[in-house]
Amino acid sequence: MPQAGLKPLNQPKNKTIMSNIFAKIWLLHLLVLTGTCHATSWNDISRLNQEDVGQVISVTAETQVIQAIRDATANKQKIAISGTKHSQGGHIVYPGAILLDMTPFNRIVDFSPKNKTIRVQSGATWADIQTAINPHNLSIKVMQSSNIFTVGGSLSANAHGRDPNYGPIIETVNELKLALASGKTVNASKTENSDLFYAVIGGYGSIAIILEAEIALTDNLIFSKSVVAVDYRDYPTLLSNGHKMNPLHFGRCAIAKGGTLLRECFSIDYTAHSPIDQAEQGATLPVPLDLQNEKNISLNAFFFNRSRHSNTGKKLRWYLQKTFIDRPEKTTLITRNNAMRPPIKFLEYHGKKDTDILQEYFIPHHHFVGFVDKLRTVVETHDVNLLSVTLRHVKGNNDAVLSYAPNDAIAVVLYINIGLDTAEIEKAKTWTRELVDITHEHKGRYYLAYQRFPSIIQFSTIYPNVKKFHKIKQLHDKNYIFYNRFYEAYIAQPDKN
User: Fold this and answer.
1) Whether the predicted pLDDT of 12 surpasses 60
2) Distance between CA atoms of residues 77 and 70, nearest Å
3) CA distance to 33, 262, 423, 431, 451, per residue, from 377 (Å)
4) H-type helices in 77-229, by residue range?
């Protein structure tokens, strides 16, 4: 024991180091238990929107969301909401914000095979839903072409899919459970709190937090897949001749520089072959019913990587695509659920100097040819590094306040590689704004899920309901608790639009 009035002897250096290590381990353990991490960097899949947020909460319970709202209100903080990070326009970040990572909040709340409905927490992915419903011969009506996204993220972007019989996902949502900025929870549907329903879907997390969603399902039929070669000028006619009424449909166009660029295309169609329940009563099922996982990831990634910076690689990919993968006149059988599980993992890319981004433009059918001709000019003039161009038919729907396809349209989806340095990003802004102007000229709209490259004037011109959206925001979140870089850039100050 040290004598009175004397300072205790210094602890041995090794003991002090061990004490610090144990303290850090205990702190980390505490953060894991509470689901909270402080002051960390957050970014989306494009790696172009990195921000230092105040803290990250891995949400596993509704009470955490309510407490986060109370804390944000008391401390005058913002709340940003993140899923699998595929919204690429600053929708999931804000400096110093409380970041709610919703991916652990993924429980299936209720499932009724009889009513063909499923209710899930917003962090559940479409893959989670497919796993639950496939044994019951049920399928999803509308989701993105891949199943890796969260339900909450898809709803926030009002995503559309490959089934041309439906418009955006808002058509298939029966009800939402929302957490408001007041800390209260409410249900919202087309008949209850409808202003919230139509603003939250397609509102990118800036109106309320989606806690749960009840979604309508459809039958998991067996499809017959076929491929038809088509010149881009004939594609709208092909759709009008009935291809847009198939259960699933998409198009694909050549991306290599030269005579085939955005001229040579394919129509990939899935038509109903037979109901699974009828097939089960027969002798032999013509196709596997189990969910199929992605195959040949390394091989596909190898060929895709060869095309990132090589026109020869792009030509090789197109040759392999039309010769082996989507061969014209070849017919194959597949279930709806497996058709909605296309390869995606092979696209993962973490280049040090470049990254892959998406853009999407919704063009009325009779303007499609003119738009593609000008798109080709922009690609050639600015040497845009296209990695793929796919087409969808999107049935018109004007329900969402920020609707991107109020009338029937062809969605032109661009997968692009750009440099990470400032000069390359500025270059991308330039040709993106040209494409947005061309889109407006052809009576179309662009998708808001991607980079903040368009100007404020372009946004407010193409989305005239921005002021209505802002009024709904003021009504339900007057202190602007739910906030992100996208909202700040385009909607926060409507008088400047």
Assistant:
1) no
2) 10
3) 55, 10, 21, 11, 22
4) 126-133, 151-156, 194-200
The whole-chain average pLDDT of the chain stands at 90
- pLDDT at site 285: 65
Crossing angle of helices 368-382 and 422-441, in 10° steps, is 160
Nearest partner of 371 among 428, 439, 459, 432, judged by Cα: 439
For residue 145, what are the CA distances in angstroms to 337, 338, 341, 454? 11, 11, 7, 25
Residue 24 has pLDDT above 80, yes or no: no
Give 209's Cβ-side CA count (13 Å radius): 37
Does residue 281 surpass a pLDDT of 60?
Answer: no
The residue type of 477 is D
Instruction: Provide the strand spans (E) within 28-162.
Output: 36-42, 51-58, 79-82, 98-101, 108-112, 117-121, 138-140
Dist. CA 246–CA 392, nearest whole Å: 12
CB contact at 8 A, 75 and 86: no
Q: What is the C-alpha separation between 435 and 26, in angstroms, rounded?
A: 53
Give the number of C-alpha atoms closer than 13 A to the C-alpha of residue 334, restricted to the C-beta side.
18
Question: pLDDT (tens digit, 9 = 90+) per residue, 339-395?
Answer: 999 999 999 999 999 999 999 999 999 999 999 999 999 999 999 999 999 999 999
- Considering the entire predicted model, what is its pTM? 0.90
DSSP code string of 48-67 = ---EEEEEEEE--SHHHHHH
